[in-house]
Amino acid sequence: MSDLSKFPITRRWPASNPQMLQLYSFPTPNGVKVSIMLEEIGLPYEPHLVKFATSDQMSPEFLSLNPNNKIPAIIDPNGPGDAPLALFESGAILIYLAEKTGQLLPQARRYEVLQWLMFQMGGIGPMFGQLGYFHVSTGKDIDDPRPKERYREEAARLLGVLDGALAGRDWIAGDYTIADIAIAPWLRTLRDFYKAGDMTGWDALRHVPAYLDRFLERPAVQRGLTIPARD
After folding, report:
1. How many CB atoms sit inside 10 A of residue 190's CB?
2. Which of 5, 11, 95, 199 lies 20 to 30 angstroms, CA to CA, from 115?
3. What DSSP letter does each residue of the chain carry, written as one string?
4. pLDDT tens digits for 20-54?
5. What is the DSSP string of 29-47?
């Protein structure tokens, strides 16, 4: 039986079932990557809500798991060698879960999948997030238009890259993989939360809108988008 008591985070978010994977998250684009993945692969897990409104991510308990104070993070009580594994960074978690279960990272296309995962981690996530900051968050009150335009332009460029790569295929690496789980939640956020579709040429894209619709139709995606449940 796994003992998670050595992890300080469990004092703030106790595990009801310490034999299950523990997820510490909030339903942001990065957070739902992992809840969607867990729903897709069917691995039992216990979600814990990390509330930004009360700065839970800055608490000593959370920082003991992720010193970078970002969600999501996990503890897998059944990690390599049957020892508990603590892990942060959504991309690393997706790769770990795919390798643990043998799902959504096909060996024949492994590096193609990983390149698109890194495309999201290094491009789509940071650039879309910065556009959101300057368009709908605190940065919208900055008078200088150049930062927003910089990120709007780059977001539009990245959408064009993605649109071209999706020509003739339903999913970015052929089959549905962790790359899609990483990319599509950010597309949803750009379109629906940031309301930045018009300024980034969304309606002129030939393949991305239908790609996002296919993703959002998946039952596991619909479940994962609401986990952890907000208070």
Report:
1. 28
2. 199
3. ----TTSTHHHHS--SSTTSEEEEE-SSHHHHHHHHHHHHHT--EEEEE--TTTTGGGSHHHHHH-TT--S-EEEETT-GGG--EEEESHHHHHHHHHHHHT-SS-GGGHHHHHHHHHHIIIIIHHHHHHHHHHHTSGGGG-S--HHHHHHHHHHHHHHHHHHHHTTT-SBTBBB--HHHHHHHHHHHIIIIIS--TGGGTGGG-SSHHHHHHHHHTSHHHHHHTT-SPP-
4. 999 999 999 999 999 999 999 999 999 999 999 99
5. HHHHHHHHHHHHHT--EEE
Architecture per CATH, 107-218: Up-down Bundle (1.20)
| pTM for the predicted model, two decimal places | 0.97
What's the pLDDT band for 226 if we cut at 50, 70, 90? very high
Instruction: State how far the Cα of 16 lies from the Cα of 63, in Å rounded to an integer.
Output: 21
- N residues, the chain: 231
Which neighbouring-strand residues pair with 174? 171
CA distance 107 to 109: 5
Range 9-103: architecture per CATH: 3-Layer(aba) Sandwich (3.40)
Indicate the pairing of strand 21-25 with strand 85-88: unpaired
Task: Name the residue with tokens 């942060």.
Answer: 88
| Domain spans in the chain, listed from the N-terminal domain onward | 9-103, 107-218
For the stretch 87-125, pLDDT in tens is 999 999 999 999 999 999 999 999 999 999 999 999 999
- Among 63, 74, 77, smallest CA distance to 30 is for 74
